[in-house]
Structure to design on (244 residues):
């Protein structure tokens, strides 16, 4: 970016707004395409002959409108359209993402065994103290992190689940390997909260940004719970559609 662009300081429009409108125009025209990184604040400031604080205010305004997103340590990107994410009896992340011409992937970010407390025992319909697998996963669409999910499973029913998930990146495939060839959602509970620091790092979002939280139970063909999940979703990258 070497061409100097003039600012009309007598127009009665704040300089940062003029820069914001210019960026909107460049995005609308395709100069900056969805998913691509914007020039740095320093580059934009030099092009307009302003300080970085002015540019930062323009970019913050665009971020509040969902036009761009700031990824910590990576830069500012033109936001893609939110992923439409239906939640119903047969919610499958890979199928949903693939159906929108995006590449799905899953990555294991942590696991351990723990004894079921009263809350988890009720969700999975097992006695308190039953050994559970706790699995932490990051779910990604076209290289963009969308969901951090914590899931619990009864260890005795699927002792190799962590290894199977690490190899495939698919909960469906891991459950199939354990002999659970089909499952359905029993229900969903949707809330919102501010992202915690660990999830913010995985999702590449600023501390304090809201995330959607979906709690769900999956059941097998006999109606027995096989998975309880708490999924935290980047609110600016996903649009939940509740199916009835």
């Amino acid at each position: 970016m070497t061409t100097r662009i003039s600012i009309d300081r007598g127009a009665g429009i704040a300089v940062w707004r003029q820069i914001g409108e210019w960026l909107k125009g460049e995005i609308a025209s395709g100069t900056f395409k969805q998913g691509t990184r914007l020039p740095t604040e320093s580059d934009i400031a030099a092009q307009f002959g302003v300080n970085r604080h002015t540019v930062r205010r323009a970019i913050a305004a665009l971020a509040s409108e969902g036009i761009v997103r700031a990824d910590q340590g990576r830069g500012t990107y033109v936001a893609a359209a939110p992923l439409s994410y239906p939640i119903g009896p047969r919610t499958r992340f890979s199928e949903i993402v693939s159906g929108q011409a995006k590449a799905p992937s899953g990555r294991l970010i942590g696991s351990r065994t723990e004894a079921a407390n009263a809350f988890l025992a009720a969700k999975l319909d097992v006695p308190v103290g039953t050994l559970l697998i706790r699995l932490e996963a990051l779910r990604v669409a076209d290289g963009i992190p969308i969901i951090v999910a914590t899931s619990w499973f009864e260890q005795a029913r699927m002792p190799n689940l962590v290894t199977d998930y690490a190899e495939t990146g698919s909960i469906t495939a891991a459950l199939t390997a354990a002999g659970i060839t089909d499952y359905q959602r029993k229900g969903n509970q949707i809330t919102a909260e501010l992202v915690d620091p660990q999830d913010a790092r995985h999702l590449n979002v600023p501390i304090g940004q809201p995330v959607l939280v979906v709690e769900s139970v999956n059941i097998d063909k006999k109606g027995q719970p096989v998975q309880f999940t708490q999924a935290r979703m980047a609110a600016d990258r996903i649009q939940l559609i509740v199916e009835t």
About this structure: The domain at 83-242 is CATH 3.40.1410.10 (Chorismate lyase). The radius of gyration is 22 Å. The CA atoms of residues 129 and 222 lie 23 Å apart.
